[in-house]
Amino acid sequence: MGKGQKAWFEQVANSLDPVLVHELRRLREQDDDKATVPVIIRLKKDLEDEKKEHVFQLCQEGECNAVHGELELVHGLYGHLHPETIRQLVEHEAVDRIFHDREVRAFLDVATRSIGSRDVQAKLEYTGKGVTIAIVDTGIYPHADLTRPKNRILKFVDLVNGKTEPYDDQGHGTHCAGDAAGNGYQSEGLYTAPAPEANLVGVKVLDGNGSGQLSTVIRGIEWCVKNKQKYNIRVLSLSLGAPAFESYRDDPVAQAVEKAWHSGIVVCAAAGNDGPYPMTISTPGLDPMIITVGAADDHNTVTRGDDEKASFSSRGPTIDMLVKPDVYAPGTDIVSLSAPGSQLEKQLPENRVGEHYIRLSGTSMATPICAGVVAQLLEANPYLSPNDVKSILMSTSQEMSGDQAGYLDVRKAVALAKKYLEFQKPTVSQT
């Protein structure tokens, strides 16, 4: 290549996401003829079958290439491809854009009382009963707070290791499940989540180190959309993310959560833990459609007067210059379920709380707490749409100093959700 001449991937940068361009540049410098890149290929819409099949064939040519499957929600496929194959795909009439299939990482005692969930449970008896929350994370250990006196884990799907019985080798997903729906069985009710009677579906998309690929997360979301009716999945909790490098309009995970939202599932996603710096909202939290949750510090008190934004909670605006997060929920020193023998127990022995619990902080904790609150709202009014839920949570939240997003107020939110019933209840025809 002559001096000043651009590499092929720099000349077609509009067809590749910025991270993939960087990865191709790195591989060229390594000069490894057999190196491949994990990619997501988005195909053009209304594509003829023969053109789609030709893309599949092209991706499987050569000993280095491998196609792992389709991603229906984003109209694409994923696999590992040689740079030369990527070069050919860029010029293919059926290919819209190619993304680097980069890494995604995993980012209740007083907390439940400080946002008013306990009052709603005690006085109005809204506990998320009949509502299913999908925890897309590192898995779910069948902790007694989720399985006794009744097993509320309706289904477990393992997209990492293919196991069929619920487990969690990392521990993050189990903590999140407890944040949303733990019933305090082994703490005599002390560590009770907002929705202690909600059902759960565990979808394992992250490994024992708490990491995974964008494509696996998309497959997890896709599974939830396809099985929404079967398990009555009304809420999707995503305490994971990756740095955002481009608009939500192109980001494949953002587009996947939008599809879930439009299918009738309320999506709660973590803002990220890269605060207090601005423009640190991760994907899929950057999507304007869904509920992006920031973490508040409740200072371990029931009163709300001293609650403030957690310093680590990611700040907006997003890469599209949109306001995020949408709401704040407790996210510091949250005591929830521990998975025996998990990586978290080994890495943070000082955070153990007795034999069955562990204390963690992050927007990862705030997100399922918000998901549990959503389950309470949907029990109070099952006719709410995802847009209704988001509007109610945002309009009833308590102002947080220096932020357009407010702090969850479950009492006010449930009251407004019930108010909606006045015009949402189906009427019986008099004819």
From TrEMBL:
Tell me which species this is from.
Polycladomyces subterraneus
| The keyword Protease belongs to this UniProt entry's keyword annotation | yes
The UniProt similarity line reads: Belongs to the peptidase S8 family.
- Residues annotated as catalytic: 137, 172, 364
Keyword line: Hydrolase, Protease, Serine protease
**One Pfam family of this protein, by short name?**
Peptidase_S8
Q: Which residues form the Peptidase S8/S53 domain?
A: 128-399
Its protein name is S8 family peptidase
